Amino acid sequence: MTPQMPAWLDPSPWLDGRVATPADVERALTCDEPGPRELAALLSPAAHPFMEVMAQSARALTRRHFGRTISMYAPLYLANYCTNGCAYCGFASDRVQPRCRLELPEVEEELATLKEMGFEEVLLLTGERTSHAGFDYLLECVSLAAQRFHAVGVEVFPMTTREYALLAEAGCSGVTIYQETYDPRRYDRLHRWGPKKDYLDRLDAPARAMEAGMRTVGLGVLLGLSDPAFDAVCLLRHAAHLRRDHWKSGITLSFPRLRPQAGNFAATFPVDEAWLARLVFAVRIVLPDVPLLLSTRERPEFRDGMAGLGISKMSAGSRTSVGGYGVAEPATEGQFEVGDKRSVPDVCAMLRSRGLEPVFKNWDSVFRGGEACGHG
């Protein structure tokens, strides 16, 4: 049965049967408290002539709230076992590739490598919960990472509130969990089998993480799976819902686009760089104080141009395969194809050449146990 979208998430009032005009775009750009209606206008065809105005507004707002800094982080893939049948994912259970996980000594080696690269924030990733890489394994990995890094996040399977609380106690400061697409019909078709097929359970996971005391929760959609304007307005609605009900925790937003991966799934709703840039500008205008992330999925030239232009946080030197940092040729395929393969020093040099400062540490681990920060 196709899941039912909750009423608080429904974007229909701002998208159905309404064509934005240039006047709507102008009002959105000058609105004191922009919301879903303004975001929909800024993403409409009528906003195309306003791209430069949107870019300048996004730059000014980013600088006002984040200065000239770009926060840096690194992803670390712990395991690629998975029981899900996501049509678009290189780790899906029907993909033929070697499966493995990092044993704890190997995790320590990868963490040491990332530490040597200068990182103070690491994001730990796995596939779906399995007997090979379940909660207990993740908890041990978080504990190891928290001994070395000031900020430890996870991008893994949905968990219970109690499990999220245990992760927080072990030193986890953030949870990233993308809905992938908010369109319930598309979601049902794309998630062919496995626990991830439960749309509502995944939708509720960020709230459970916040209830458990996580400092930040990262949201996002995988652009290319569904109508991007629909998903963008839903993403804004989801973020607003969480900020209202769980105001002690912060939100971050990411904008991953579908990349080539094992299985060769093609984007049904292709999103080009121009539209992605407009999405970043629009979200920055509507949410001026929320960190916006851009990963190494994108081309170097695009990432260079977006740094500080809405984007306030970036990864660098990323590997999307298990054990990818410690060896020249990883034993497994990556989850997706990396677009920006530059080294960390090269990315940092680029940022400084643009008057931006890469920041590897912007808060202390001693604050993990205290009150969560605000939304910025």
Characterise the protein shown here.
By secondary structure, the chain is α/β, with parallel strands linked by helices. The protein has one domain: TIM Barrel. Helices cover 38% and strands 11% of the residues. It has helices at residues 12-15, 22-30, 36-42, 51-66, 104-116, 135-148, 161-170, 184-190, 199-211, 228-245, 273-286, 300-306, 344-353; strands at residues 69-77, 121-125, 151-155, 174-176, 216-220, 250-254, 292-294, 313-315, 357-359. An 8-stranded parallel β-barrel has the order 1-2-3-4-5-6-7-8, surrounded by 4 helices. It is globular, with a radius of gyration of 20 Å. It starts with 11 loop residues before the first helix and ends in a 17-residue tail after the last strand. The model is unreliable at 366-376 (pLDDT under 50).
